[in-house]
Amino acid sequence: MTIISSRNTNWFKAVLRVAGVYHIIWGISVIFFPHFWFNIADLSQPNYIQLWQFIGLHEMIFGIGYFMASYNPLRHWRIIFIGTFTKICVTIGFLYYYLLGQEPAIVFNMVLSNHIFWIIPFGIILYNAYHHQYLIDNEMIGLCSEHNLDLLNLYETDKNENLKSISDSQPTMLIFLRNFGCTFCKETLHIVNSLKSEIESQGTKIIFVHMDNNNTALDALQKCSVQDIDVVSDPECILYKGFNLKRGSITQLFGLKVLYRSVYLWLTKKGYFISQTDTDIFQMPGVFLVYKDKIVKQYIHHSAADIPPYLELAAFSDVK
């Protein structure tokens, strides 16, 4: 496995600490000496100096955030992302007003040192933070996928039944969910609930695998009127990786199909709002029919918006 080197990580930390110190000092200078930057730039003083001081406070808070993120840049990428996005917006805003002739050229020096200068190094950190999670994901899949069915013995349902024992006794449909805040996860619960009697009439047992705690899962099932379906909690995603379920790409999670079906579900199914979740929002779902140490059938989503053929997957008689 090729992981980001410690040298690069140390470089990330150094950049964020320098950025933190710079923004904190600059913010303090604006708060306590609000006229300083206008004097050296030979600009007229603003009418509402308090607004300028609030900008200084804003930059100082960002500086504190960068300094905090420096202890683990790859984990605290959200702080860096917000800072980068802000700097891009400020740069675009400056260019817009400059082209309109409403912003003096000398302001560019401040925009350059406070914003433009940091966009590239912050962007490099964000790029590596994004790929770092996928490197870890691939490593976990490599470690777990060879023993995927052995992993069933390590998990129990919310009714304290061993997952391997269940799959040995009857065909078991493992439905791996993304998260209960996902629009498509809520749709899955409704679809499976409507097909429950047909699936079970074929002798197949349905089990939802999720990344939340079971109390959250059972509450979500209750809201969707789903009854008598077992759930298995896998917060570490070990079972997900054992079944080769990867983190999704940008197109798989936010592509045109996903956006289209999200809008469609929002317009037609008002209950399918996206809600907050503490689980990995990049995790992809999947469906597996397991029986006696074998994966009989499987469906791995190409897009988060895919609808698996649940009845076809549940039919065990056609493979006997």
Question: Would you summarize the structure shown here?
Answer:
The protein is α/β, with parallel strands linked by helices.
Q: How would a textbook summarize the main sheet?
A: 5 strands, mixed
| Second rung of CATH, namely the architecture of the largest domain | 3-Layer(aba) Sandwich
Q: How many helices in DSSP terms?
A: 12
CATH superfamily of the largest domain: Glutaredoxin
Mean pLDDT: 87
Q: pLDDT below 50 for ≥5 consecutive residues: which ranges?
A: none
Element-by-element helix/strand order? HHHHHHEHEHEHHHEEH
Indicate the multimeric state.
single chain
Describe the protein's topology.
Layout: H1 6-32, H2 36-40, H3 49-69, H4 77-99, H5 107-144, H6 163-169, E1 172-176, H7 183-201, E2 205-210, H8 214-223, E3 230-233, H9 238-242, H10 250-254, H11 256-268, E4 286-290, E5 295-300, H12 310-314
Parallel strand pairs: 1-2, 2-3
Antiparallel strand pairs: 1-4, 4-5
Helix pairs in contact: 1-3, 1-5, 3-4, 4-5
Question: What features would you describe in this structure?
Answer:
- With 320 residues, this protein is of the alpha/beta class.
- It has 2 domains: 6-142, no CATH class; 148-319, Glutaredoxin (3-Layer(aba) Sandwich), CATH 3.40.30.10.
- The chain is built from 12 helices and 5 strands.
- The chain has a 5-stranded mixed sheet, sandwiched between helices.
- It is elongated.
